[in-house]
Amino acid sequence: MSATSAPGAVSTAPSKKPGEDGRPGRPERPRSLKRVLVYVLLSFGLLIMSAPFLWMALSAFKTTSELTASPPVWIPTEWTLENFRDLLDKLDLPLYFMNSVIVAVLVTVSNLVFCSMLGYALAKLNFAGRNKIFGLVLGALMVPGNLMLLPLFVLMSKMGLIDSYAGLVLPFAAGAFGVFLMRQFMQSIPDELLEAARMDGAGEWYIFWRIVMPLVKPALATLSIFTFLGSWNNFVWPLIATNDPDKYTLPVALATFATDPNKAGGSNGMLMAGSFLIVLPVLVVFIALQRHFTQGIATAGMK
Amino acid sequence: MSTTTGKAAEPAKVQAGPGTTSPAAGPKGSRRRRKPSMGVQNMAGWLFSTPFLVLFLVFMAVPIIATLVMSFTDFGLRNVTHPLDANFIGFENYTKLFSDEKFLKSLFNTAYFVVVGVPLTILLGLVVAVLLNNGIDRARTFFRVGFYAPVVTTIVAVAVVWRFVLDPSDGLVAGLFSEVGLTAPDFLGSETLAMPSMIAMAVWRNVGTVMVLFIAGLQAIPTEVREAARLDGANVWQEFKGITVPLLRPTLLYATVITTIGYLNVFEEPFVMTQGGPSDSTLTVSLNMYREGFNFFHMGYASAMAYVLFVVIMGITVLQLRLLKDNTK
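YS: structure for the whole thing
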C-alpha cells in the first residue's frame, strides 16, 4: 500500500467494484429486492447502534419529570438547559477539559516525533540490531497494559509525578502501535530517493525531517487522530495516576461524579448532560475525519 | 524533490558521510559523496531509536519485569515509598490465588465474557461488513460511521448511558418492556443478567472495530474470484462460504485475536457500570487486580494476578494463531 494513496482507499474502492452495479446480463429484479432487504437490516442495526446516543442527547435536555416518565419520553416536550447548569455548578468541566486537552496534545506530539523516528530507522536505516528492535516493538504490541500498572504507579510515586501532567503523559509518550504504523508507511518510500539525498550530502536527520516526514503526512494524520483519541478516552491510568481532583481528566472526573452518590445524587439528567458534553467533541472530530480512522485501523490490521 | 540544496539547517544529529561533513556544500558541482558507510547508518539507526527505547525501557520493560518480581513478594502500601523493603515470599501469591474464591470467580467471569462476547462481536462485525460491502451502493459512509461511532466514544460516557438505558425504573429498555405489558428486570442488579447486559454493551461497542477490519479484508479479495464463482452459478451463500470466508481467514484471525485480548482485559465496563457487582457477578480479573492493587494495596498479590492473566492471554493467543492459521493455507 502506498503512503500517499492510502487514506480514503476504503471509501473509494467500493464504488469501483465491478459486478456490483448492474452489469449487463445480470438479472435486475432479485438484486434490487435483495438490496431492499439489506438496507432494512442495516437500518435496523444502525437504529440499535445509535439509540443509546440519541437517548443520551435527548435526555440531557429533559426535565426531571420527563427523565423518569414511564413509559419513557423520547423527545422532550419542554427543552431545558437545567441539567447543564446543574452539572457546571457541581463539576468544573472547563478545568477537566483543559487537563484532557493538555495531556492528549502532549501525548500526540511526542508519539508523532518518537514513533516516526524509530519507524524511519526500522524502515530505512540498515543498522545492527534493527531486527531485534522491531521484534521488541511487535512484542510490545501484544503486552496488555494492565501488566505495567502496579510498578508504574510505584515508579511515578517515587518520581513524585503522581498528580502531574508528566505522570499522565510519559507512560504513553511513545507507543508501539505508532512505530508499527509509521514503519509500514515509510517502507513504501523508494530507497533511491533517500540514496540520492545521501549522495548529495544530506544528513540522516535532514532526510528524515525534510524528505520523509512530508511524504508520510497521511500516516501522521492517522497516527495523530488515533493517539489523540486514545489519550482522550484513556481511563485506567489517569484514574490511578491522579488523586487530586484538580488533575482529573474528563473521563475520570465524570466516572468519579457518576459513581459518587453524594455528587450525582441519582440525577440522571446531569449525567446525561455530562456524557453528552464529553462525547460531542469526539463524535464531531470522528465524523469529520472518519476516513483516516477506518483506514488507519485497516492498515494496521492488514499487515 | 531537490535535495541538492541541502543546507542542513536542521540541528543535524548525524551527518552523512565520513570525513568532511559539510552538508552546506555548494548546491551545484558538489562532488558526489560515497555511499554512507554501514557505520554511519548504524549510528544514525541507534540515535533514531534511542528516544523510543528509553521511554520503552523505563515505562514498559522495567515495569513488566518489576511486576514479575513483585508477584513473588508481599509488596504492600508501605513499599510504595520503600520498594526494596518488600519480602520475597516465593510462589505464595500464586498458590493463594488458586484457592481464592474471589479470584476464581473473576477468572470465570472473564471467561464467560470472552466466550460469549468474542463470537458475537466477530459474527456481527462480519455480517455488517459483508452487507455494507456487497449489498448497498448508497449511504455506505453513513452506515459505516454509524456502526463505528461507539468505538470512538469515551467508555465512561458509554457506560453511564447504558446504565441509564438499562435502569429498571425509568430506563429505555424498561420502557420498551412496559410497552408490551411486561416488567423489565433489574438488568445490572441481577446476578444472572448483569454479565449478559455487559456483554451486550461490549458487543455494541466493539462491532465497529471488527467491521472495519473485515471491510478492508473484503476489499482485498480480487473481484475476479467472485465473478468466476458467480459465473459458475454459485449462489450468495455458496459464494460467502466458498470464497469470502476462506479468503478472509487472515482478517478473521487478526480480528479474533485482538478482540479476545481486549475482552480478556475487560475493566472499564464493570468498573463504571457495576463495580463488579452484584455479588461479584461481574468482577473480572482486571477489575479484581485493580481493587487488590489500588484499593487494598496488596500489590504483590495483584501482580501475581496480572501475570496469571498475561499467561492466559499469551496461551490463548498462541492457540488461536495455531488453530486458525493451520486452515489458512
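YS: worth flagging: Chain A has two domains: 36-80, 92-302.
IM: good catch. Also The longest helix of chain A spans residues 268-302.
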